[in-house]
Amino acid sequence: MTPKIERFLAEHRADTPCLVVDLDVVVESYARVRDTVPDASISYAVKANPAREVLETLIALDSGFDAASMFEIETCLSLGAPPESIIYGNTIKKSADIEAAYARGIRLFAFDSEAELEKLAVAAPEAGVYCRILTSGDGADWPLSRKFGCELDMAADLMLRARDRGLDPVGISFHVGSQQTDACQWDIAIGNAAKVFDATAERGLNLRMINMGGGYPVRYRKDVPDLDTVGQTIRAAIARHFGDNPPEMIIEPGRSITAEAGVIETEVVLISSKDYANGVRWVYLDIGKFGGLAETMDEAIQYPIATPHDGSSEGPVAIAGPTCDGADILYENAGYQLPLGLKVGDKVLLLKAGAYTTTYASVGFNGFPPLKAFYI
Amino acid sequence: MTPKIERFLAEHRADTPCLVVDLDVVVESYARVRDTVPDASISYAVKANPAREVLETLIALDSGFDAASMFEIETCLSLGAPPESIIYGNTIKKSADIEAAYARGIRLFAFDSEAELEKLAVAAPEAGVYCRILTSGDGADWPLSRKFGCELDMAADLMLRARDRGLDPVGISFHVGSQQTDACQWDIAIGNAAKVFDATAERGLNLRMINMGGGYPVRYRKDVPDLDTVGQTIRAAIARHFGDNPPEMIIEPGRSITAEAGVIETEVVLISSKDYANGVRWVYLDIGKFGGLAETMDEAIQYPIATPHDGSSEGPVAIAGPTCDGADILYENAGYQLPLGLKVGDKVLLLKAGAYTTTYASVGFNGFPPLKAFYI
Q1: Closest-CA residue in chain B for A276?
Q2: Which of chain B's residues have a Cβ under 8 Å away from the Cβ of A285?
Q3: Does A279 have pLDDT greater than 90?
Q4: pTM for the complete prediction?
Q5: Which of the residues A111, A145, A147 would you substitute to probe the B interface, choosing the one with the greatest number of B C-beta atoms within 10 Å?
Q6: Does the pLDDT at position B1 exceed 90?
Q7: Domain that holds residue B69
Q8: Do A363 and B361 touch (CB under 8 A)?
Q9: Most CB contacts within 10 A, which of A317, B32, B47, B61?
């Protein structure tokens, strides 16, 4: 919560639910993230929050961009981002989209399979490519699973094949999982990337870049390593695994740039109990899993909640959204407590909600409109 | 798959992903559902598919409507549904929305708590109300959990209180859970509703209606009881628990009206393996969990899939969507097999996808636009 957001909410009394993002915090977060690995270039993960105002703020800071789709690429370009500042980081692309991106000047692409490499060789001749390797996902609150990446031996083979197909085999990428809470995971992944560098070097191909993806954790309700710790771990791992020949580096922060900049204001629609015996209060908000809070799936991301009664006595609650869907429960087992004085109509704030909220909102599930957002 | 949809897809070659809904199937499904409990009136669960064309089709059949929000109510009214055909079935409503609905002529409201009853007493004086009771959710592929409903003793107290507050205490509702595969769950719930009728009658209040919600199962990949079986079970339960004094009845079908009417056409974007040892093929489609397939959460709803190579030899696959999100996996453990000849660029059909798809789609996660739909 910042004074700017507080003032905006007090003055505008917008209909809830709404997200308010303080762009000054985006600027500050960008600087803090940049300092973690000063030698890395930053490609902001556009998917975390693709609002025009956020992208313009980052373009003004000379940030680069990691795009997940041709739609995101067009958005960045339309706001003035130079094509060489944009990488096409999705390993799953239609040939037509690769062609379109290439035609617009994009020259660096992710892949993790032979089939994707083949598409790139045809649709993006001579472009730079990097191969994504698997990570375990251990330690991540929003892990990325085996959906992305390939094993190390396959990655080495694919990089050699990329050269044979006329592409520029630039390097290796990984992603330790979003909201990664164990700094050691970067060390493991950097070590694995170094192994691929060694394997291809033995076969006459020198790689030169590692893209370390995102994953920097945000302090929601639980304690997480701070950015300094993560940065130190990464710098130490680069030194240990690459010695005095460090690679070019890219990082792709998303959550760590925009999460803390945003606050969602929501209204308590109903407070109820299911029976006379059980003490659990059910608190229903006017935003839920399908209104922008998709990351509450399995109670993974736990937003800090502020109410007008904070400081008074609290009791356990289950918290749910406003739709007629049984899956639209935010927190039932995460141990949330809210003030006993909370009442229907109260405005409640979900903090650190500037990332991965607006674009997850459904187009109109149960008729409810998407999350409104204000950028100030 | 119907000839009409087949012809449409062949002739229009729309960009994928897209949903095509055959309105003739909506009409047929409506008739089949109506025959399950001929004495019940039907309130179509608008949330299942609120497309104008679907609603107009059902209005022409004199269907009623179960609305989850004031937005859905306005949609139905704007298409010509009379206000007395619409019930406001969400137990979680803002006072302002109750007031607005009442002003537009809505006279039947759901609730399951004292706080909601209080709102109704103030904002919808003398309106009809029904109290939702808890169900176990057992047997449902998309259960509704303890988010909705209250215990029986509380329901009886609340109905008496509704009378005292000047409302018209009409009856009791339940929902056995969406995609309910155990017909006995209706018998249990109807028995419970009858207990509340008895409890209030002893205290001088005769209830007259039960709203049996939705839950009629659709045959996706797994065998489920057919509608005749469910209908027989319901009619037998009404006879058993209410004897020769049956209540008025409402059913709220949604999935069973629109699911089978729709087919999603999608394209294979990528097929890959993660390593040399493991045989699992990953098949990536251009639609995923955030593009309309939210009900694949925990692999709950399993759409039958048709490919151009059906009939040839198959092998196991994991199936995922096109976004950079690790949660965007559709099926990893459900045992899907797809033809070994499947290739990038193939068009693949997700069958029985006309319910709970379009409105779940995100506004633009990863930049991908919402699911397009055609109603023919």
Answers
A1: B154
A2: none
A3: no
A4: 0.96
A5: A147
A6: no
A7: 50-253
A8: yes
A9: B47
